[in-house]
Amino acid sequence: MKPTKPLVLVATVVVVAAIAYAVLRFWDHLGAGSVPAVPLSAPITLAVLAAAVFGVALGLRARFAAYRKARARIERGLPREPNERPVKPIDPLQAARALVLAKASGLVGSVFAGIYAGYGLFLLGRLDVGIYRSEALRCGFAVLGGAALVAAAIYLEHILKVPPEEPGNDAKVPSGA
User: Fold this and answer.
1) Which of the two ends of the chain, N or C, has the fewest CB atoms closer than 10 A to its terminal CB?
2) Range of 53's domain?
3) Does 94 reside within a domain?
4) Distance (Å, rounded) from C-alpha 150 to C-alpha 93?
């Protein structure tokens, strides 16, 4: 799987924002009533998702660092400290699931950031009305939440990047690292 390119995510935000803006303009043109309200839970949900993805990234980063440290100690021939717990390698299936989470989170974050960016652009012309001003503020926070989710997803993908193999390094790490 190739890493997600940030340009693709930015393009997704721009295209979805344009579509959301056009749909809201059409809705307003039809006179179907006021535009739907932005739920208060939208920015909160996106921020919680971003924190969860970032937490997964930090947890995996710590496990990878501990495994690299134990592997380097074994390669140098140093014994394990008496109070040091054995380090288990990362399960490949767990890493694959985290990678799928990162890919999906990046796309979800960019789509929702685009939706609320388009909605916010639509509301910019109506900021003189108090209700629209609060809706625009919620849209801004939702865009920030979507951007945070995208950033956390890109960071998780970066953590899961496999370093290139060193030529001539066919040595296996002994079990019980």
Assistant:
1) N
2) 6-34+48-78+87-159
3) yes
4) 23
Q: How many domains does the chain have?
A: 1
- The whole-angstrom distance between residue 43's C-alpha and the CA centroid of its chain comes to 14
What is the phi/psi pair of residue 106, to 5°?
A: -60, -45
95 membership: H or E segment, kind and range: helix 92-123
pLDDT in tens, 60-109: 998 888 888 888 888 888 877 777 777 778 888 998 999 999 999 999 99
Query: Using CA atoms, how far apart are residues 164 and 33, in angstroms rounded to an integer?
Result: 57
User: Global pTM?
Assistant: 0.84
Q: Which of 114, 112, 69 is nearest to 87 (CA)?
A: 69
CB 53 within 8 A of CB 156: yes
Q: Which uninterrupted H or E stretch holds 71?
A: helix 41-76
